[in-house]
Amino acid sequence: MMKLDILVFAAHPDDVELACSATIVKMISRGKKVGIIDLTRGELGSRGTAEIREKEALAAMKIMGVHVRENLGFRDGFFVQDEIHEKAIIEVIRKYQPEVVIANAPSDRHPDHGRASKLVRDAAFLSGLRRIETTFEGREQAAWRPKRLFYYIQDHALEPDFVVDVSEWYDKKRETLRAFTSQFFDPESKEPETYISSREFWDFVEARARIFGHMIGVAFGEGFISETPLKVEMPTDLI
């Protein structure tokens, strides 16, 4: 088992890359251990296949330098909030014992995003209850509750509680997104055009990062929502 500092969950492969890949690269550059857990294989996507997206996700993982990436194989579009799905998430939280969990946006254009967000939120709490029994490789797992739960922002224009300066790492985000050649803008592709494959969507992703950056006076930023108020020792720490 590898203990992680941050565990990032995604309803689909490419959610993390779109929303917070530059932040992940920045955290890894500062010595943090980061893992990604994709809940589904994205098999309902109009472009590519689940097998293609798996290869793209692994390529993106290498570009970011992520330490581990797993896919729980939930049904794209049809996973539900029940004990089976909650326990699957609890098991990986207890397996990697992250200090911070980051999840999908609480509400978004794709219904899987909000549903995944609530699944992870509840599992992060339940993972700390010792009477919920889970095992890994035949051994009972100890209870573990992350210290912080954050949500990344996706399609909907949600107001961030904090913004991470990712100006130095935004080129790496572009490289990461290009790993998903089946999903995003590619003028050579013969696949059907979708909402996220248009040039306008690619421009939107960059414009959103510039807007978040503008909020904090830098070139590029990625915004996050906090589950609870953030602790600050001194107001001057925020300068």
Descriptive report:
- The termini are far apart.
- The chain has 239 residues and is α/β, with parallel strands linked by helices.
- Helices cover 36% and strands 18% of the residues.
- Strand 2, helix 2 and strand 3 (68-74) form a beta-alpha-beta unit.
- The mean pLDDT is 95.
- The strands form two sheets. The protein has a seven-stranded mixed beta sheet with strand order 3-2-1-4-7-9-8, with helices on both faces. A two-stranded antiparallel ribbon has the order 5-6.
Task: State the gist of this model.
This protein has 239 residues and is of the alpha/beta class. The protein contains six helices and nine strands.
Topology:
Blueprint: E1 6-10, H1 15-29, E2 34-40, H2 50-64, E3 68-74, H3 83-96, E4 100-103, H4 111-126, E5 135-136, E6 139-140, E7 148-152, E8 162-165, H5 170-178, H6 199-215, E9 221-226
Parallel strand pairs: 1-2, 1-4, 2-3, 4-7
Antiparallel strand pairs: 5-6, 7-9, 8-9
Helix pairs in contact: 1-5, 2-5, 3-4
